[in-house]
Automatic annotation (TrEMBL):
It comes from the Archaea. InterPro entries: SAM_HAT_C, SAM_HAT_N, SAM_OH_AdoTrfase, SAM_OH_AdoTrfase_C_sf, SAM_OH_AdoTrfase_N_sf. Keywords: S-adenosyl-L-methionine. Residues 5-150 form the S-adenosyl-l-methionine hydroxide adenosyltransferase N-terminal domain. It comes from Staphylothermus marinus (strain ATCC 43588 / DSM 3639 / JCM 9404 / F1). The keyword Metal-binding does not apply. The keyword S-adenosyl-L-methionine applies. Pfam families: SAM_HAT_C, SAM_HAT_N. Transmembrane segments: none annotated. Belongs to the SAM hydrolase / SAM-dependent halogenase family. This is SAM-dependent chlorinase/fluorinase. Residues 175-262 form the S-adenosyl-l-methionine hydroxide adenosyltransferase C-terminal domain.
């Protein structure tokens, strides 16, 4: 084990929840190194948590322990999970938040740690981040084997999300918005590989339809290639197609929400009557 524990939650910073989780981890393993990935996932948005985990994990060393606590079903019959993948360990609720990374990295084994003897002695109904997930991660970082922490189950028996692949029809790519960052940049599920399939080159103008909204913007290396307040589309740092506004908020400007349908093409899309 490398002793690195990475926390991802929707707790924010007003309340003591994150700090208490760290206290539990350090009480069990004083040598544990803890990194905050983010605590500003949209409240109760397990799919957003899954996306953040998916795009971030590859920048961490092998055997990193990711603890995801975006848990609107806390206190219900949902399972608490420990998933061992090809390169990482994932700890969190059985609500899909771990599933995209697990599937992308390759699942080796899955354990139900809901009734683990390594939980805190008293487990509340409303704070499993403190009472279940933090101690499981801490004991794992100390070298306790996954099979000692829980009961092995099948990956088929847990909740899973799928990152739906875009469709390419006659040089038009049809995808969807999967994430909007704090700057209002609109990230889609259209990957760099999808863009390469239709052989787009920098400098080309694209016609983009987002639900019922249409815009034209250049395909460029970054939004800094256009004037202030102007839209641009580019491949973002996670290798996904994104729409931004230079010194602006694209999501607000165009009224875009996560889940919106997106089409991009070199030719203008016809508006529906």
């Amino acid at each position: 084990m490398n002793g690195l524990i990475v926390l991802l939650t929707d707790f924010g910073y007003k309340d003591p929840y994150v700090g208490v989780m760290k206290g539990v981890i350090k009480s069990i393993n004083p040598k544990a190194e803890i990194i905050d990935l983010t605590h500003m996932v949209r409240r109760q948005d397990t799919y957003e948590a899954a996306i953040v985990l998916l795009v971030s994990a590859k920048y961490f060393p092998e055997k990193t322990i990711f603890v995801c606590v975006v848990d609107p079903g806390v206190g219900s019959s949902r399972k608490a999970l420990l998933i061992e993948t090809s390169h990482y360990y994932l700890v969190g609720p059985d609500n899909g938040c771990l599933s995209l990374l697990a599937q992308n990295d390759g699942v080796k084994s899955v354990y139900d740690v809901s009734e683990s003897k390594y939980r805190l002695r008293r487990v509340s109904y409303t704070f499993h981040g403190r009472d279940v997930f933090a101690p499981i991660a801490a004991w794992l970082s100390r070298g306790i084997k996954p099979e000692e922490l829980g009961v092995r189950i099948s990956f088929d028996d847990i909740v899973k999300y799928d990152l739906i692949k875009p469709e390419i029809i006659e040089n038009t790519i049809h995808g969807s918005v999967i994430y909007i960052d704090v700057f209002g940049n609109i990230m889609t599920n259209i990957s760099m590989d999808d863009i390469n399939k239709i052989k787009l080159s920098y400098g080309e103008k694209l016609y983009i339809k987002i639900d019922d909204k249409e815009l034209v913007c250049p395909f460029v290396p970054s939004f800094s290639y256009v004037g202030l307040g102007e839209p641009a589309c580019y491949i973002n740092s996670w290798d996904y197609f994104e729409i931004g506004v230079n010194h602006g908020n694209a999501a607000e400007k165009y009224g875009v929400k996560k889940g919106a349908k997106v089409s991009i093409t070199r030719e203008k899309l016809e508006s529906k009557n």
